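Page 47, continued from p. 46.
Same chain as before, 490 aa.
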Amino acid sequence: MATAVTTPADAPGTPEEDMPQIVYLDPAVILRDEQNAREHDTEPDEELIASVKEIGVQDAISVRPLPDGTTYGAFKGWRRTQAQQIANATAEEDGRPVRRIKAYVREDLVGRDGWTRFLSLVENKHREGMSERDILRSQELSLIDMSDVERHRAVKALGVGRNAASHARAAQRLDDAALRRAAAGGMDLEQTAQLAEVESVRGAENRLMRAHARDQEEDTGGRGHWDQELALLRAEQADAETRAKVEKELEKAGIPLLGRVPSYEKDPSRPLKELTSGLGNPLTEDNHKNCPGHSARLDEENQPVWHCADPAAYGHKVRPRPKKPRTEQDEQKAEERRTVIACNRAWKAATGPRQDFVTRLVRMKTLPDTARVFAQEVLLTVPYFYSSWTDKHEFETVARFLGIKQPQTADPTETAAQLPRARVVNALFAHVAAACEYNIREPKTWSHLSEPQARYLLLLESLGRSDNGSYRLSEVESQAVARHRPDTDA
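Result:
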């Protein structure tokens, strides 16, 4: 987001010697162009007005003719123009000359709103006081309203990616303070948009800032730590959205959701599995739903656990069982369950960054030798995980790695016929990687990682490290492969 800008030639395909000459215009016929990038702090300050009263506007502004044929829109230098208008209004009274203003009249920009806004953005971004929100809005609007040729040049000049317009739109969801912190922290436009995507997760900004700092400290130019932290935040956000959806469904069904009871209060509610009817019959969701105390709590996996809010009040009995005090072992089991749930979620979240990295590897012009050798070895030895996957005739993941559009309906035979000879090794690695991904798809894989599974993850770790740190194993992946690392890496 705080990327340095290299200013391109003003008009694509127009040599500098063909640029318009400076003309002198009456400031009274100049208006603010609607494509002027600065939308906040547009008024000249007293210091600028005083300077213009004394010596006039020294640097030429840029305008384009407006549809009425008599006025001009200032897309560069509107504050200077206003200062000259103010100065001229009192010039005769103060004994000063009424001055005209130097301007480039850009007739070539009539009807080219996107490029006009872009040129205004480039001008204003380096001046004091332009807000991050104005910068983002101008990037979005200018890039949307451009031809493909202009957009290609603009993104190169701004130092942003081809999806800059959508990233700028997304980033504007952040408030002004968050935008300033993101810019000060060195986040680029894509990262700022990703922060906006997950900002509802508690602590998201601080976690991403720390991940970004770790990537910067390693000075490799990669963003492996960022990608892994972002994947975890997305998983947590999805979990929260699932929970909110279940809560809404319970509310729609008229089933109260029980909250957490403070430790100093007694909780009268009990799960149905601990209760019976007055005659001693088991209580279930079906035979209890007409009870006024029918309610629920959500467990760690967002599944409703049916309760009665007050069994004693509604004639239920507690199942007879010996009451055992909660022991240290019980606490340990509860902690182990929380760990399993957290690791399962983290393992699922790590799939995204890992498969994105595999996709980048497959689409490289030359596949790294270690990846090629790994794929060849699997092909020649045909381990069980590979042969069992090939029996399933699953091609969607391979197609996605290869960059085929609509991978869910891709035809392997057609793909093979169109595959260039130079890409065969890449396709082979995509095939082997898809089998490896299938082999580690289950969320609990982290708890019993096998040697072949670890080899695949360690290969990707090594390739990511060699690629300027562009990919790193997540915490749960690193934990799972720890016992499989060679002694030299321990």
